[in-house]
Amino acid sequence: MDKDRLAVDVNERSNGSKQTCYVGLSRVRTREGIYLMRPFPKEAFQGAAPLGPRTLLKKLRGEVMDWMSVRAEMEGVRAEQGREKRRRIVQSSLLTCSKCDVLLEWSEFSESQRQKGEERACIRCVDDVSE
C-alpha cells in the first residue's frame, strides 16, 4: 500500500467494514494524501465497536464475562439486522413513477417501464396517456 496517498469511498453498505476503512485511513501519512471519493455522514465512524471483536478483546484481557448479557446483546443485534434487511427489501421493491411522482410497488409498473429507470411511468399513468 502506498502510504503517501489513498483514494477511499467511505460507504455504509451492509457488507462494508468501518474497521477496514479506518485502518486504511490511519495508514496514510498526511491528511493531504487522502482523497475522499464522495461525502459521507459522520455517523460512519461513530458508535460502539461490533459485539464480536469487543467480546473477544474482553475475554483476551481476562475480564469477567457475563455470557447471559453477551447472548442477550447478540440476539438484539440479530433482530436489528433482520429489521434492516427487511427494510432494504421493501425499499428495493418500491419504484417512483416519473409522471405522478409517487412511490409505488414494483408490480405497478410494466416490465418495459421498469427497465426505463428514472423515466419509468406506472401502469396508471401509461393508461392515462393512451386514453
Structure, described:
With 131 residues, the chain is mainly alpha-helical. It is 44% helix and 9% strand. The strands form 2 sheets. It has a two-stranded parallel sheet. Strands 3-4 form a two-stranded antiparallel ribbon. It is flat and about 75 Å long. The N and C termini lie far apart (62 Å). The model has no long low-confidence stretch (mean pLDDT 81).
The run of helices and strands is EHEHHEEHH
- Approximate shape: flat
Estimate what percentage of residues fall within beta strands. Answer: 5-15%
Q: What number is the mean pLDDT?
A: 81
Strand order of the largest sheet: 1-2
Number of helices: 5
Number of strands: 4
Largest sheet, strands/sense/barrel: 2 strands, parallel
List segments where confidence is low: pLDDT < 50 over at least 5 consecutive residues. Answer: none
Taking all Cα atoms into account, the compactness measure Rg is 23 Å
Distance between the termini: 62 Å
- Look at the helices and sheets and give the structural class: mainly alpha
Helical percentage:
40-55%
Layout: helices, strands, pairs:
Elements: E1 6-8, H1 18-27, E2 34-36, H2 51-60, H3 67-92, E3 94-96, E4 103-105, H4 111-114, H5 123-130
Parallel strand pairs: 1-2
Antiparallel strand pairs: 3-4
Question: Any key phrases for this structure?
Answer:
single chain, 131 residues, mainly alpha, two-stranded parallel ribbon, two-stranded antiparallel ribbon, 5 helices, 44% helix, 9% strand, flat
